[in-house]
Structures are given as C-alpha cells and as structure tokens.
C-alpha cells in the first residue's frame, strides 16, 4: 500500500513538470539597453508586483524566505494604493544584457517618508541600499524624502524589493535612469521650480500691495493662495528639504499635512469670495463654512502627527469641493449668464482638472491609467492659472472701481432728483388736499352713474343672449324645411338612378350625405344651446322599445354606412324618454365610429340588458383613444390634437348630457390599438322612478322640438 502511494506521488510530480514546460513562460523582467534612461526615464509601470503588509512588521527575510507564503500581485500601471496602513512591498525584475551596469532607481513622487531598496550583496543575501542625493555634489544626503537610489543591474534577471511606508498616499511611479539622463532631468526641474517660485513671489508682493492700497481682503486671500500653491509645488517637485532646510525631517512630514489642509481652507475661502457664492446662494456659503471647519480640524490632527488618519478624507474633501465649485460656476455662466466670471473660471479650469486627477490617484484610483505623478504638469498648470487669475482679479478690480464710481454718480443724481420731486409733490399734494372734498362728491356721483350703466349693460347682454337663442331656434326651424326638400329630391334621384347616368347617382348620394351631416350638426348645436339655456323638461315623453330605434337609425344611413354597421338587437328593452333625442345619441355614436375607423372596417351596435339597465355598445376598429384623452373627449368642443377628421366637438358632449338627463350615462369602456367601445346605459321603464329620485318624468337638455 505505501508503495502504491509513492508511485502516485511521482506520477503527479512528473505531470506537473510536463504541464509547466508546455505553458508559455511569461517573464515580468525589464531589459535595459544602452540608450535607455538618457533622454527619458525607463518606466517600470506594468513590470511591478506589490504586496500589502497591514502590520508593517514583515522584514526582507520574511519576504524572500523559501518558507514564506506571501504572494505578490502584478499591477498594470503605476503604484496607486491610496492611504494604506502598514507598508507596501514592491518587487521588480531587471537585467541589462548589453547596457551599463550602474543605474538610478527614481521614486517619482517625492512625498513618501520611508523608502528602502533591497538588493542582493555578494553573498546573495538581500540588504538595504542607501539612497542617493538628488543631484551630484549634494552634501545633505537624500533629504527628508528618499526617492533616488543607485542600483547595479547585471546581465541576468535579478529581483529587487522596495519597501514603502508613509502617512501620505502610496501613489508613485517608479523609473530607471542613467546618471547623465537624470542630471539633465533634474536641471530642467531646477529651471521650472525657479521660474514658478520667482513668479509666485512677484505676484505675492503685487497682491499684498493691492490689499493695502485698495483695502480689499480678496487680495490678501489671493496672497495666501499663492503661498500655498508655491509650497505645494515645492513639495511635489521634491525641493522640500532645500526650501525648509531649517526644519527636521519629522517637522517636514507634519508640515506637508498641515499645508494641504490649509490649502483647502484658503482655496475654498478665496473661491467663495471670487465667485460671490454668498450673494448668489447663502446655503452654499454655509456648506463651505462647514467644509472649512472640517479641514481646520484635519490640520490640527496633521500638526499632531495624525495625518495618516485623515489624509484620505482631506483628499476626497478637496475632490468634492472642486467638483461643487466647478458645477456652481458653470451654472452661473450658462444659466444665469454671469459672463464676468468667465476669465477666473478659465484660470481655474487647468489647475482644478490636474488637481482632480492627482487627488483621484491619491485616493487609490487610476481610471485613466496615467503612468506619472503629474508633478511637472501641476507646477506648470499652477503657474498658468495664477497668471490668468491675477489678470482676472485685476479686471475685477477695474470693473468694481468703475461700478463704484457709476453708483456714486447715480446715487448723487437720484438724490438731487428726489429733492426736486419732493418739492413738487408737496405743492401738488397741498392743491390736491384743497380739492379733495369737492372731488370726493364727484367721485361718488360718478360711481353711482357707472353702477346704473352697468345694470343697463347687463340687461342688454341678457336681452342679446335671449335674442341669440331665439334666432338660433328660428334658423334651425327654417333650415329643416329646405333640408327636407333636398332630402326628398335626392331620394327621387336615387330612385331613378338606374335609368340615369352614373354621375347623377353619385351626386344624389353626396347631396343626401351632406343633408345628413347638416341635420346632425344642427341637432347638436340646438341641443348644446338649450343645455346652456338651462331648460329642464321634455315636451315629448313616450315609452318605447329601444330595439325600435335601431330600425329608424339604420334607415337613415347611406349605403356605404349601412354596409359597415351591424345592428345586434337584444331582448325587449322598454325605456321612457324622448325618442328623437335618444336617436340623436345613437346617430352621434355611429357617426363617430364610422369617422374614426378605417373606411372598410365594420362597426357593431349591440343591445343587451343587465338586471334593470339596458346597455347599447357601439364598437369600432379604429386607432383607439389616448389614455389622457378618455375623459376629455366628453368635454364641449374638445378635439384631440393631430386629428384630420372634420367635427364640431359637440357630439359626445351632447350625447352624454342627453343620457344623464334620462337617468343614464355614456362612457368609454374599452379603447386600444384594436378599436374602441362606447356604452350607453339607460334604466328600463319600470326602474326609472327609482333611479331618477322619484320623479315621474326625466329632466332634459332640450325643450320643444
């Protein structure tokens, strides 16, 4: 049995070796060539693996021990680990098959306090390699932030380990230089930092002078912004140990956190003053006051050496503050058209954009896969925005002085004009008071006369409305006779159409259709007029079977309509009311169904009973009624938007009112893309008295017909 297990173990080992040989070998080692690192750095981005040590207790022996179970994770770009507790270990592999053996390893962001490079010694053990001065000949050592290390690279692949620990963000790129290449790089940095610092000092002196002369605190705030921007540039470019030479390393570390927090406070105060947030939105100013207070607390913690606890909050706070300022300024420019803020907005656009990118890296994210700490870009952007901002402040000052002078002149002119107007008003008022008693009596008489005229006007309007109703009744009565004659003539033409040319028959059909449309319109107009007049009684009440109306309505349809309309009678449904008015309701529903459905689609009219209610459903296959119009179609004169069908907007309104005056109702019970169904409900004759509240006759919208 043990022999079998032993064979199985050997089989697994052999298969593992074979599988490993078949797999493609991927090496993360970076080859260094003779031309590398002279004109530009050799970026190690994409060739790094990292390990997070939360406790910070791991040693190099723990990392490289054969019994160690630590696992490094490859990263695709620069190191962006954000604010991490403990230490970050970085592993890189290099070899120089043909190039020089001596190189320089640069930690690009010079704000990480504790950096240690581990290389192999002659015995093959990993030992710490001391940092190099920033430039040849420096006697002050590596300064507060060690970020440059000499490194020997053999022709075979060799691993190196870098341990990083900091109270700031673990964000940096790692580069490889040759000595001459880095000297040129550092010389360019010297020119940049000298130009930036010199410009900032000049701008500070100018703004302090403006602050004293003009007595405007905005210039003092801007001077503080200049100082803070200069200090940030000094730290980002790696010159903190030279400028703050009088401080110890620990004091420099604490000063960085305090400078960042103070920069947030000063920048928010300055932006709020520059863009006048307090005048536009008081609540925004209150919110910024809260942010300033939080940054003040963070600054105290940084001075006490606790910046590692609040660094992430400070970076995120700056991000959100800049985004909020950008949105508010954009609102002022685009929505409120406050073009006076355009120049300062442009001045801040570059530095805010760069700062947001840097703060995004500091908080542990790199969505754009940027492989640089942007220190140089930040310095140039700061200089550009400071110059533009100075121009914007100067423009603002000139505008403010001009506005102040104009306001003084305007106030003076208004004061003089007010004095003159006051004297005139006093004289006029004295004369008006002398005439007030007489004018008061005249006003009373005039209002009494107006009241009499108003009553006369109201009487005239009522008389005119009555005359209008009488005229409408007369016109309707006069139209009925000629229309009846026209209808009879068209019937005769249709009777002899078989012996006449085809066009005579077509014209006769058009005459009859026109007569029916005119008759229907007159009936609807007359019904609407009597409804507005408030008439409440029927003159022609009868009891009849509602099925009988189907025959008379069908007889009144032309041939095309008669072919499309199908009448489905039901059981006996005796109702009580005005037969002619109920015919108008049914005619309106059928005509609507015909007009609002395809020319060849059928229309169904079906009668049914439900207990003591008779129901008449008129269904079509039209496009349906939009949900938001299903109640509006019963309003007087309502016409849905986009309709190309002729109509007066009275049919459904009149039909519903007639139904309700008969103790019934008219509703749209179904409507979709397949068609619509309107339902007329009326009480059966035996149930009329119960539904109408005890009345023996229904109330109506029409009087004598």
Automatic annotation (TrEMBL):
Organism: Mesorhizobium retamae
Ranges of residues in domain Histidine kinase: 474-686
Protein name per UniProt: histidine kinase
Cross-referenced InterPro entries: 7TMR_DISM_rcpt_extracell_dom1, 7TMR_DISM_rcpt_extracell_dom2, HATPase_C_sf, HATPase_dom, His_kinase_dom, HisK_dim/P_dom, HisK_dim/P_sf, Sensor_HK_Regulatory
A molecular function GO annotation: kinase activity
Alphabetical keyword list: Kinase, Membrane, Phosphoprotein, Transferase, Transmembrane, Transmembrane helix, Two-component regulatory system
EC id: 2.7.13.3
Annotated transmembrane regions: 191-213, 220-247, 253-275, 287-308, 314-334, 341-362, 374-394
Reaction(s) catalysed by this chain's protein: ATP + protein L-histidine = ADP + protein N-phospho-L-histidine
Organism domain of life: Bacteria
